[in-house]
Specification:
By secondary structure, the chain is of the alpha/beta class. The chain has three domains: 206 residues, Rossmann fold; 38 residues, no CATH class; 90 residues, 2-Layer Sandwich (GMP Synthetase, Chain A, domain 3). The protein has twelve helices and 15 strands. It has an eight-stranded mixed beta sheet, with helices on both faces. A hairpin with a 6-residue loop joins strand 11 and strand 12. The longest helix is centred in the last third of the chain and has 24 residues. The two termini are 15 Å apart.
Length: 410
């Protein structure tokens, strides 16, 4: 989608690097805040997919690097769990100051525990979603193994996580131990969604159960099976994002349908936009405020996560045909109760076409079957069959088409 580079100061004045994921036309219905996992960054693939799935549903998301992580300023060794909460509050205030206060908080792993604790200091938050979050922030201590004892004895130790070295001080462990998650959840003043995979080997599914049991209603749970802790498979992170967006719609204060009278008079970019990533063929489409997905079948190197481009083309022809026939029938006051259009597409040799002259070429053949419901006589049915060939998309496909392509500077 539309990604903006932004930054904001933390409580100590250090600049935290962030990305704001916006709908393509920059007209979100609401804003959200995303907290990444321990020592991860805002650019973790799963975080990007989750945020973009939400922006596709018109929820803008700010994802940022905590102090001392990724592109953010500050020293990681001086941070603790409380400073992460402070960073989240600073991010929320930045959104409120520059855009709109966040209504939705999302946290992955330890970031999930952080957003639960931060809700009390972000009054605009109406909903919070955790992904693979530990019930007790101190769960991190157990993940450090023998290093935790070294930190207790020496005051700090270097830990290698994800191929990088991090200095962890005793103050972090002490701060984690000081948290009271049961009390925090009992007082949670927001709707809660818990997402967790039963196959998570880092933070067990029992943590999700504990979070769910401690929180009051409204609360919901979604299984992320078969995902791993980091949602390494893109399909899992996109699924998580889509589920959060669908769930949040029930709790966020939204302006309603985007009626023309409520929209800004200036449209930043009303073109159809399609974005294809570096892996596979999964393509995000943004059209007139609607989020669509295209892909290729597995046999052609895709993951079959959406219709193929040709299937969208057939869909356009089918939809236009049905609309055109209804428009014509209403103008004539004919009793057309409904239209069903079934289509298929194939490449055929040119010699199969009587009007083709290049025998070695191949042409596109669309087969369209139309079913008309209603008390129509035979003359009316035949006339509607003729009108089908006059639908705008049909005329575009069979007329002279010119496509002008330019290369945009990045």
């Amino acid at each position: 989608m539309n990604t903006k580079r932004v930054s904001f100061p933390n409580a100590r004045g250090e600049q935290l690097a962030a990305r704001l994921e916006l709908p393509e036309d920059e007209r979100p219905l609401a804003y959200a805040l995303f907290a990444h996992c321990f020592t991860c960054s805002k650019d973790l693939t799963a975080a990007v997919h989750i945020c973009r799935a939400l922006s596709g549903r018109r929820i803008a998301v700010l994802r940022f690097d905590f102090t001392g992580i990724g592109e953010s300023e500050g020293e990681f060794a001086t941070t603790n769990f409380s400073s992460e909460i402070s960073d989240l509050v600073a991010a929320a205030r930045f959104l409120e100051r520059e855009y709109e206060a966040p209504q939705l908080l999302i946290g992955h792993s330890l970031g999930g525990a952080a957003v639960l604790a931060a809700v009390a200091e972000i009054p605009s938050a109406k909903a919070v979603a955790t992904i693979a979050a530990p019930f007790r922030p101190a769960h991190l201590r157990g993940m450090l193994g023998e290093t935790a004892a070294q930190i207790e004895q020496s005051g700090q130790a270097s830990v290698r996580i994800g191929g990088r070295d991090f200095t962890i001080r005793k103050s972090l462990l002490d701060d984690l131990e000081a948290q009271r998650p049961s009390e925090t959840l009992a007082q949670l003043a927001a709707a809660l969604l818990v997402l967790h995979s039963p196959r998570d080997q880092v933070v067990g599914i029992d943590n999700a159960s504990a979070i769910y049991q401690a929180a009051r209603h409204p609360k919901s749970f979604i299984s992320l099976d078969p995902a791993d802790h980091l949602l390494s498979d893109a399909r899992d992170s996109r699924y998580a994002g889509e589920m959060i967006a669908a769930w949040a719609d029930r709790y966020l204060i939204l302006p309603g349908t985007l009626a023309a009278s409520t929209l800004p008079s200036v449209v930043l970019d009303n073109r159809v936009t399609a974005r294809t990533g570096a892996e596979g063929f999964h393509t995000e489409i943004f059209a007139n405020g609607f989020h669509l997905v295209a892909d290729e079948p597995v046999a052609y190197g895709g993951n079959n996560e959406g219709p193929s481009p040709y299937e969208y083309l057939l869909s356009a022809l089918g939809a236009c045909t049905g609309m055109t026939l209804q428009m014509y029938a209403r103008r004539k006051s004919w009793p057309l109760a409904g239209v069903v259009v079934r289509l298929s597409h194939e490449k055929v040799h040119a010699q199969d076409c009587e009007n083709c002259t290049e025998s070695e070429s191949r042409i596109d053949r669309f087969v369209r079957e139309i079913e008309l419901a209603g008390e129509l006589d035979e003359a009316q049915r035949q006339r509607l069959l003729e009108i089908a060939d006059h639908c705008p998309v049909h005329r575009t496909l069979t007329g002279e088409v010119r496509i002008e392509t330019t290369l945009r500077k990045s």
